[in-house]
Design the sequence.
C-alpha cells in the first residue's frame, strides 16, 4: 500500500472517531453550534472515503483508454469534497435559523465542551499530517482534505468559545447565532477547495516560480540547441506535463539531437519529480527568436 493510500485510510478512521465524539458532545448539550460542528465531521468522513477512492483510481497506470494516466481522479474527489462542504453549510444554516427562532437552554455544557475540545485536538494533529504529507507526496486529494480539516479545527475552536459564553451568560440565542457564523465560514472553505481543484481540471499551467525553474533548466541543459519555444505546462494530480519545441542546427545528426533532449529531460525529472515531457525537435529555419534562449 502506497504512503498516500495509507494516509487516506487513516483519515477515515480519524474522521469516524472525531464524528463520534462530537455527536456525543451534541447529545449531552443539545447545542446547535455543536451539532453544526458534528455535521461538518460527517463531511470529513464522506470526503475521506471519496479521497481514498480517487487516490486508488489515480494510482492506476496508463492504459489504452487512458494513455495519459488517471491522475485527474484526485481533482474530481476534491471538487466533490467542496460540494459536500457547501451542502453541510446549508444544513447548518437551516438548523441555526430554527434555533434563532426558538432558542433552547444548554444541558451539561462544560462536559460537552470538554469532549469537543478533545475531538478538536485529534483533528489538529491529523490536519498537520495531511497537509505536510500531501505537499510532500503532491496529492491534491490529501491537501484538500487537510485544508478542509484545518477549517474544521478553527471553527471548532470558535464553537467552543461561543458555547462557553452562551453557558456562562445564559444567553441561549448565542448558540444558534454562532452556528450561523460557522456555516458561513464553511461555505467559504468549500468554495476555496472547489476553485483549487477546478484549476487542475481546466489544465491550469504550473506556478510562475515552477515555470521559471523549467525555463532555467532548459536554457542551461540544452547546449548544442538554438532555442526552445511554445513552452506549455499543465498539472494533473502528482504529475506535471511539459511540452515545447526545441530548435537545433539543421546539420546535426538525429542522435545528437536526441542526446540534447535526454539531457534536458533528465534534469527536469531530477528537479520536478513526476513529469511527462514531450519535445518536438525542429531545424534552425523554424526558429522564432523567442521563448527560451540556450546559454
Sequence:
Amino acid at each position: 500500500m502506497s504512503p498516500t493510500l495509507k494516509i487516506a485510510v487513516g483519515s477515515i478512521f480519524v474522521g469516524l472517531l472525531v464524528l463520534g465524539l462530537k455527536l456525543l458532545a451534541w447529545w449531552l448539550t443539545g447545542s446547535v453550534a455543536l451539532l453544526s460542528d458534528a455535521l461538518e465531521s460527517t463531511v470529513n468522513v464522506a470526503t475521506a472515503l471519496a479521497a481514498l477512492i480517487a487516490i486508488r483510481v489515480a494510482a492506476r497506470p496508463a492504459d489504452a483508454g487512458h494513455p495519459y494516466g488517471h491522475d485527474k481522479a484526485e481533482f474530481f474527489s476534491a471538487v466533490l469534497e467542496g460540494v459536500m462542504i457547501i451542502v453541510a453549510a446549508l444544513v447548518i444554516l437551516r438548523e441555526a435559523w430554527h434555533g434563532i427562532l426558538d432558542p433552547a437552554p444548554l444541558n451539561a455544557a462544560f462536559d460537552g465542551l470538554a469532549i469537543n475540545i478533545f475531538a478538536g485536538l485529534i483533528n489538529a494533529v491529523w490536519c498537520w499530517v495531511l497537509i505536510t504529507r500531501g505537499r510532500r507526496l503532491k496529492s491534491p486529494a490529501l491537501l484538500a482534505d487537510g485544508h478542509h480539516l484545518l477549517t474544521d479545527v478553527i471553527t471548532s475552536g470558535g464553537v467552543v468559545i461561543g458555547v462557553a459564553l452562551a453557558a456562562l451568560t445564559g444567553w441561549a440565542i448565542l448558540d444558534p447565532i454562532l452556528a450561523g457564523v460557522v456555516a458561513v465560514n464553511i461555505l467559504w472553505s468549500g468554495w476555496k477547495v472547489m476553485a483549487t481543484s477546478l484549476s487542475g481540471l481546466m489544465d491550469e499551467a504550473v506556478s510562475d516560480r515552477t515555470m521559471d525553474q523549467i525555463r532555467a533548466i532548459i536554457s542551461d541543459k540544452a547546449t548544442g540547441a538554438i532555442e526552445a519555444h511554445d513552452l506549455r505546462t499543465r498539472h494533473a494530480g502528482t504529475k506535471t506535463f511539459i511540452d515545447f519545441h526545441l530548435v537545433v542546427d539543421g546539420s546535426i545528426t538525429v542522435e545528437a539531437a536526441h542526446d540534447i533532449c535526454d539531457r534536458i529531460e533528465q534534469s527536469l525529472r531530477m528537479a520536478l519529480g513526476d513529469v511527462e515531457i514531450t519535445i518536438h525537435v525542429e531545424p534552425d529555419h523554424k526558429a522564432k527568436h523567442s521563448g527560451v534562449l540556450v546559454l
